[in-house]
């Protein structure tokens, strides 16, 4: 990734960091945009973007609040609006991605997202309509804690939900939680859960996740995200998707069980395929990049 230079695109009043890999300017394969998950950044595609760039233009983008992009103060749904604040939610991030595709890529685009980045990709595809030609969702966030899924939770979770909502909106708490998590030892513990095989957990990975967390506004995206109690769910978004959707899933994902993805495959018409990655967890694109790159290249080359 060191050979891929970071660039800045100005969106609304914010700066958006992005980069591009392309070794084949005459390719007939559609360009792709890579969208990272929560707490990650465009460099999390370090083992994928250079490979995908060999067959077509491949872009990676930092969502607002992450990586090298602006980290504005969070604005919750019921808080007074301010032009200097940002509503961290799937609609806002999706508009960012859709505008990036229109202003920078300027071609019908393939969207590839991991975790919450997959939900962002789905919503962006709805906005782009015919300007999006396909989607790959890698361990898509299932958002079990959303209010719309509350009936699936234990009774005590339902009873304590109002107190939890009141508590996590407090900045003193979100800053404290974030500060405690933004250190190497905690990041390594989380990575060992996310990457059950232990492959590719190296200092480069730890540092690329740690660096953005040390910026002044890093805790604001965390506050915004932990207050998303009622936002888009992937199955609902897919009912209004008219392009093929391919799923890639780590077989041992500890947070987004593959069984739910298997249910999606059986019940949602736009889903074309589900490929499981043996022994991988929540981020198979980085844990088992060779396998995932092979799958991605096949999907990109076959989708016109």
Explained architecture:
The chain has one domain: 3-Layer(aba) Sandwich (Rossmann fold). Helix content is 40%, strand content 17%. The protein contains twelve helices and ten strands. The strands form two sheets. It has an eight-stranded mixed β-sheet, sandwiched between helices. Strands 5-6 form a two-stranded parallel sheet. Helix 2 packs across helix 3, helix 5 crosses helix 8 and helix 6 crosses helix 7. It is globular and about 55 Å long.
Question: Structural class of the helices, strands and pairings?
Answer: alpha/beta
Instruction: Please count the helical segments.
Output: 12
CATH superfamily: Alpha/Beta hydrolase fold, catalytic domain
Q: What proportion strand?
A: 15-25%
Mean pLDDT: 92
Strand line-up of the largest beta sheet: 1-2-4-3-7-8-9-10
H and E string:
EEEHEEEHEHEHHHHHHEHEHH
Low-confidence stretches: none
Total domain units: 1
Outline the biggest β-sheet: 8 strands, mixed
The rough form would be described as globular
CATH architecture label name? 3-Layer(aba) Sandwich
Brief overview:
With 304 residues, the protein is α/β, with parallel strands linked by helices. It has 12 helices and 10 strands.
